[in-house]
Design brief:
The complex is a heterodimer of chains A (about 350) and B (about 260). Helices cover about 25% and strands about 35% of the residues of chain A. Chain A is an alpha+beta fold. Chain A folds into 2 domains: about 1-230, P-loop containing nucleotide triphosphate hydrolases (Rossmann fold), CATH 3.40.50.300; about 235-349, OB fold (Dihydrolipoamide Acetyltransferase, E2P). Chain A has a 6-stranded mixed β-sheet with strand order 6-7-8-3-9-10, sandwiched between helices. A 5-stranded antiparallel β-sheet of chain A has the order 16-20-17-18-19, with no helix packed on it. In chain A, strand 1 (about 1-15) and strand 2 form a beta hairpin. In chain A, helix 2 (about 90-100) packs across helix 3 (about 105-120) and helix 3 packs across helix 4 (about 135-150). Chain B has a single domain, classed as MetI-like (MetI-like fold, Orthogonal Bundle), CATH 1.10.3720.10. Chain B has 11 helices and no strands. Chain B has helices at about 1-25, 45-50, 55-85, 90-100, 110-120, 130-150, 155-165, 170-195, 200-205, 215-225, 230-255. In chain B, helix 3 runs antiparallel to helix 4 (about 90-100), helix 3 packs antiparallel against helix 8 and helix 3 packs across helix 10. The longest helix of chain B has about 35 residues, at about 55-85. Chain B is globular. The chains are: A alpha+beta (about 350), B mainly alpha (about 260). Chains A and B meet through strand 6 and helix 2 of A and helix 7 and helix 8 of B. Chain A: Its EC number is 7.6.2.11. Chain A: Belongs to the ABC transporter superfamily. Spermidine/putrescine importer (TC 3.A.1.11.1) family. Chain A: It is an enzyme of class 7 (translocase).
């Protein structure tokens, strides 16, 4: 069931168009992430959803109701700010109680719900502290509790992890997923961190230059990217330019270094991609029907379970590939072969 | 070398600014009715005389009454102006700020003449009300500047956070903006009080005999009879100023604390 729907939103700042015809439909209880580089318009979408920015044209619908012109205080959307925006003159308890006091809840009700929210983020013993006395991760959880305590229809998260270190970020991602699962509230997260997006989201909207490039599950984005931009933004990839000859089932892709049948590709697709984990590295050419390219090791990054190789192709382009590293890594300069099956090659529009 | 420059400049400024004041102060405790050294003894008689003379106490009370009225009016006007200007765009902010601060730049004599004429024409007349209005014009920009500084230091996301949590603009002002910028409002209020309390030019033009303020009484005293009571009043004013300075300092320290 559709909970929140964004319909054909355009946003201009003077002569600059920040959003081009953005449409997005989000189901009730879904965890959706807007992912894109800085300046892609993802934060603008969030500000429009929160009610901080007016739209130039288009609509925001909440369960079918038009909320486009509603001020933020009338929307009942929770928002976790990038810098947390906790009230420094109030205790943790008072920060979380704020939205309940605004709604004139009874003292007993406030007490019950604030303590429940504190338990949810495991900060009960910090209730009487000031926000400044807490660590970044704790402040983040207070902000989360404050944005959830009034049972908002939608929770908006503006780069919630960006100020935290890597380990903390990972823990909080887990915690956030857990909270999302237990509450069933619709979550909309904004980030430029693709790993975070893939870990947490049911669906991800990839944004670039004020447009939504693709809106799909993490798996579909990774395995079936709609464009070169998406393929390169989500995960690592080896992109080949070439040309397609023939059409339908007899279509073939030709690049400078190899050719292959292109079964499901639309004719004219001239860009294909191979994920680094789909390629295999061998010291001799395997001759098993897979596409094989002679390459030379430029560098390798060893990470215990495997190594990431940067390889030099004969035409001078780079190729990156993962390989198991149980018996060490090939030294730089080694001539080896990289092979991949044609069904693992992904055609890009 | 820099220490030497520091001490030379401090000594020079201190002697230039403070010495003339310090030289006069002891004469408030001199039994002689002439303002001359050497001192003939030590007495509080002149203080008793000033504090029991309606010629001094009435202007003092008038000054306090005017200054309190000015403080209230200037905080409301200056505070509202600052809040409003902060909501506008950057370009507009610069223009409006310059406009609100302009009474500080226009010579008081010009303002005084203009107001005396305007009040006379409209029948607001001399006395308490006209003095409060006139002083507020000069005091409001000080409140405006002080509150603006506080508001600029405030994270704008706090207000947005309040809005996203369901709070109306007025609720947000009283629960978030005001508590966090209170030191700015308080400092502005102190500035407004001091400004009104020792303002001479506007008061000379606008006060009638019944609403004459302390600075006017001092001024008249300087002209008519140069006696120790003038120095006594000067000492009292200095003490008051020092107290206010300490208060300002305390407020600023409190303001700086939560940000660290």
């Amino acid at each position: 069931m559709t909970s929140l729907e964004i319909k054909n939103i355009n946003k201009h700042y003077g002569a600059v168009q920040a959003l081009h015809d953005v449409s997005l439909s989000i189901n009730k209880g879904e965890f959706v992430t807007l992912l894109g580089p800085s300046g892609s318009g993802k934060t603008t979408v969030l500000k429009i959803l929160a009610g901080f920015e007016p739209v130039t044209s288009g609509q925001v619908l909440m369960e079918g109701r038009d909320v486009t012109a509603l001020p933020p205080e009338k929307r009942n959307f929770g928002l976790v700010f990038q810098g947390y925006a906790l009230f420094p003159h109030m205790s943790v308890y008072d920060n979380i109680a704020y939205p309940l006091r605004v709604r004139r809840q009874s003292k007993a009700m406030i007490d019950e719900r604030v303590l429940a929210a504190l338990d949810l983020v495991q900060l009960r013993k910090f209730a009487n502290r000031r926000p400044q006395e807490l660590s970044g991760g704790q402040q983040q959880r207070v902000a989360l509790a404050r944005a959830l305590v009034f049972k908002p229809d939608v929770l908006l998260l503006d780069e919630p992890m960006s100020a935290l270190d890597k380990q903390l970020r990972h823990d909080l991602q887990e915690e956030l997923r857990e909270i999302h699962r237990s509450l069933g509230t619709t979550f909309i997260n904004v980030t430029h961190d693709q790993e975070e997006a893939m870990h947490m989201s049911d669906r991800i909207a990839i944004m670039d230059h004020g447009q939504i490039k693709q809106y799909d599950t993490a798996h579909q984005l990774y395995r079936r990217p709609a464009s070169r931009f998406v393929a390169e933004f989500v995960g690592k990839s080896n992109v080949f330019q070439g040309e397609v000859r023939g059409s339908g089932s007899s279509a073939r892709f030709y690049s400078a270094s190899f050719e292959m049948p292109l079964a499901d590709a639309q004719t004219g697709a001239s860009t294909v991609m191979i994920r680094p984990e789909d390629a295999e590295i061998t010291t001799t050419a395997p001759n098993d029907g897979r596409i094989t390219l002679p390459v030379q090791v430029i560098s390798s990054t060893y990470s215990g379970d495997r190594a990431l190789y940067t390889l030099l192709q004969s035409d001078g382009a780079d190729f990156i590939a993962y390989a198991p590293a149980r018996s060490g890594v090939f030294p730089d300069g080694t001539d080896i072969f990289v092979s991949f099956a044609s069904q693992d090659v992904i055609a890009l529009a | 070398m820099s220490r030497l420059i520091y001490w030379v400049s401090v000594t020079f400024c201190a002697s230039f600014l403070i010495l003339p004041l310090v030289v006069v102060w002891p004469l408030a405790f001199n039994p002689s009715s002439f303002l001359t050294y050497p001192m003939e003894g030590f007495t509080f008689d002149w203080f008793a005389k000033v504090l029991s003379d309606p010629g001094w106490t009435r202007p003092m009370l008038n000054s306090v009454r005017v200054a309190l009225g000015v403080t209230v009016l200037a905080v409301v006007i200056g505070g509202l102006a600052a809040l409003g200007v902060m909501m506008t765009r950057r370009g507009t902010q610069i223009v409006l700020s310059a406009l609100f601060v302009s009474p500080l730049v226009v010579p008081s004599v010009v303002v005084a003449v203009a107001l005396a004429y305007a009040f006379g024409r409209t029948g607001v007349g001399g006395g308490y009300l006209s003095l409060v209005l006139a002083h507020s014009i000069v005091a409001a920009p000080l409140v405006f500047l002080s509150v603006m500084t506080s508001l600029r230091g405030l994270d704008p996301n706090l207000d947005l956070a309040g809005a996203s949590l369901g709070a109306s603009r007025i609720y947000r002002f009283f629960t978030v903006t005001l508590p966090l910028t209170a030191p700015g409002f308080a400092a502005g209020a102190v500035f407004a009080f001091i400004t009104s309390f020792d303002e001479v030019v506007l008061a000379l033009f606008l006060a009638d005999p019944g609403s004459s303020t302390l600075p006017i009484a001092l001024f008249a005293g300087l002209r008519d009879r140069l006696e120790p009571p003038i120095v006594v009043v000067a000492v009292l004013l200095s003490v008051l100023s020092v107290l206010f300075l300490m208060l300002l300092n305390y407020l600023q320290k409190r303001h700086a604390a939560p940000r660290s």
